[in-house]
Design the sequence.
């Protein structure tokens, strides 16, 4: 039950300030931070009880703004992940896009890192690499994310 309450409080803390519940959540947090539900509040609301128990400060949380798109919107990029090396080589040879970005993250010889390459035709324009550290402190999933971040940076 505590995990469910924590998740609900966390989601409420990330709502934008324009959302109707944002002001009430802020007020409940301020009240509970000052008084611990002791004092003048005879019948605390559910928000007060959650804020008193969980204590997530709404001001410090990143606000998530909903993204709106035209209903007929479609992305203009293509993501392709080949399952075999032979298929990847064939796709690369047949690719007719002007710019292509490749990214990867992996662990080898005890080290973990990520890389990204920007290609124009058959020419490499830019490349970035980042070494995270040893396998004991980092995972391949982190390396994959680093590869994606580097790919966005070189664009």
Sequence:
């Amino acid at each position: 039950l505590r995990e469910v309450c924590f998740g609900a409080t966390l989601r409420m803390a990330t709502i934008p300030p324009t959302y109707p519940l944002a002001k009430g959540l802020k007020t409940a947090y301020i009240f509970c931070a000052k008084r611990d539900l002791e004092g003048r509040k005879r019948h605390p609301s559910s928000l007060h009880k959650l804020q008193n128990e969980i204590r997530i400060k709404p001001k410090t949380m990143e606000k998530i703004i909903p993204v709106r798109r035209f209903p007929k919107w479609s992305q203009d990029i293509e993501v392709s992940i080949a399952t075999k090396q032979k298929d990847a080589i064939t796709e690369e040879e047949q690719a007719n896009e002007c710019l292509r970005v490749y990214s990867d993250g992996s662990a080898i010889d005890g080290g973990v890192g990520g890389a990204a390459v920007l290609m124009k035709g058959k020419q490499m324009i830019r490349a970035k690499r980042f070494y995270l550290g040893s396998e004991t402190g980092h995972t391949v999933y982190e390396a994959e994310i680093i590869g994606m971040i580097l790919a966005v940076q070189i664009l």
